[in-house]
Design brief:
Strands 1-2-3 form a three-stranded mixed β-sheet. With about 180 residues, the chain is mainly alpha-helical. The chain has one domain: Four Helix Bundle (Hemerythrin (Met), subunit A), CATH 1.20.120. Strand 2 and strand 3 form a beta hairpin. Helix 3 packs antiparallel against helix 7. The termini are far apart. The chain is built from seven helices and three strands, in the order ααααβααββα.
Amino acid sequence: MAKTSVPSTRSATREDPFTLLFPDLEGELKTTRRFLERVPNGKDDWRPHAKSKSLGELAAHVAQLPGLGILMLTRDEHDGASQRPQPKAANSAERVKMFDEVSGELQRLLKKMTWDHAMSPWTLKFGDRVLLKGPRANLLRSAFVTHSAHHRAQLGVYLRLLDVPVPASYGPSADEGPPPR
């Protein structure tokens, strides 16, 4: 007679939101850091196309993106029309330091997040126009984690075009074996 599995008595909601909703975050942040470490100094003005961000602009954006997650965890809404100037980094080491600081704070805040906070609404506006509105944790996933992976991939293309070895991310790159654990 075949055995039937018994459902776990442990409810998914007994897990903290960070553990259940963001199990990949530490790996994502480590991968992003490896990409930022590879950005060559002295090439900040380089761009692959006139319509593209410069290497310095893109790398700074990637380094500062965990700040969006912090904003999403500490405010209920953000108006993109009132954007403050972002701090400038003079070189790769400064961008990595900035990334380490904001990603460390983001992880600290995420680990304290309760289910009530995770499911509470968050809104991104631009003036009177609502661009995003939904449960905070869902928007953290799409507007921060996925958004970061998108820009990290762009950074990988820039590195390739500059003949800089591209780090492994979700698997090996042409320059490296599988990503380190």
